[in-house]
Fold this protein.
Amino acid sequence: MTAQLRLVEAAEPDEDGLLPQPVHYFGESGTALTELQPQSLAAHRRRFGPRPRCASPAAASGLIDRLAEAALCGRGGAHFPTAVKWRTARSSDATQTVAANGAEGEPLSRKDTALLELRPHLVLDGLVCAAETIGAHRAVVWLHQDNHVARVAVARALAERQFHERELPIDIKVAPTGYLSGESSAVANAILGGPAVPTFRRPASASGAASHRAVLVQNVETLARAALLAYGGLGTTTSLLSVAVPTGIVVLEMSSASTVGDAVRAVLGGARTHAVLVGGYGGSWLPWHRASDMALHEPAWQVRGMSMGAGILHPLSSDRCGLARAAEIAAYLAGQSARQCGPCVFGLAAIADALQALADVGRNRRRRYRQVSDLAELVAIVTGRGACHHPDGAARMAATALETFAPDVQAHLRGGCRHSTYRSGRHG
Amino acid sequence: MANPPRGRTRAKGARASLRVDPIACDGVGICSHVAPDLITTDPWGYPVIRAVPVSGRRASQARAAVRACPHRALFLSGKQE
């Protein structure tokens, strides 16, 4: 209870923000603990006023210019400039559909669910503005089929809008739950009637390029921020984060001037942390002393060759072995391959095996010495060889685990582990 | 592995590049025999395309590899000679 009280105090209600308070999702499926209520259409309109109309050429290019000025980038993980995407879609006759992507494949991410659950109308406003701006005739909210919380929230919000808003109809579409069913080429492929798996785009083939352009896929936080900008707000001075804690996942909004240390302390207090996985399962491990002062500002990460991905922080408490955790994650990622590309199918399994061999203490030593060099070679072989970036993320996670947990690798090779629970099992 | 193998990046200075569609590719491996100067294979038999310019002898190897693939997984992209 005290932890929850502290969470509430930690957040200042912010006029221009998306979430005035942190939301704590408990356990795997995640019931939300929060005092926040889903914002009704009436409350939403009281706060923001009528939705800006974007269909006229002047309004459309005005909104795109605002997105460009604010440097809004995709919050689904790829951080592609939103203005560029919308401008391309607008100039192309092929783009008929806009999809609000709320299928968070990343097991440690809940920000999109939180947003759909608590601020659905802001996301839907963003979706309609996007559709009007690019001249699309169809709008879709894309969700995981077992994300009942988000599905109910969106369905309720759409029912409210039906009678009060004059706008194009919005459908809810659901995907099988999986790491890759929210990957943007998978979303586009599924909306066009194919299976929800990533696709490969051949530049030479005109038909492939056209189908890729036919759907504008945009993360729900990106759309909510586009809506804030359309209303004349700031939009990009904060970002939503999902922080993995032992009991679940805390979603909170932080200013981009604050640091990783600020975010982790806001949810975990002074708990001892020795490393952080930044950017989710396909992200980068960093030792705590290097991560804690990093700003929560994507460009600051990109100059160092890293990314915050969809805004995920996974602090690792000091009693848990990083190699054991990295091996668990690698095994999960290998299992989530769409099994379309050979290097991903075989490479990720090999990476997971090599990491597991390093995580095990007290087995064949010589075999483990070999694993270190094998692992580095596997990372190089797998990177850039899939149709999507799934293998790249898994390789990055493994490579940064080797660097960050180098002292642990040495300890394991000597037959011991520096952490009390080196066999971590399931964690939160 | 001196160069990080990158099947999808375009070789520097090349006018055309040989690429592989990793979904269509089944690791048959004929390409690496037809175009040994351009294609090596990874430990599982899938092609790794070397980051070298595709011109002269390599260009004819590249075209032969594209023709040889039973899954039509290889293609040349960019300006061709």
User: Anything to note?
Assistant: The two ends of chain B are 30 Å apart (CA to CA).
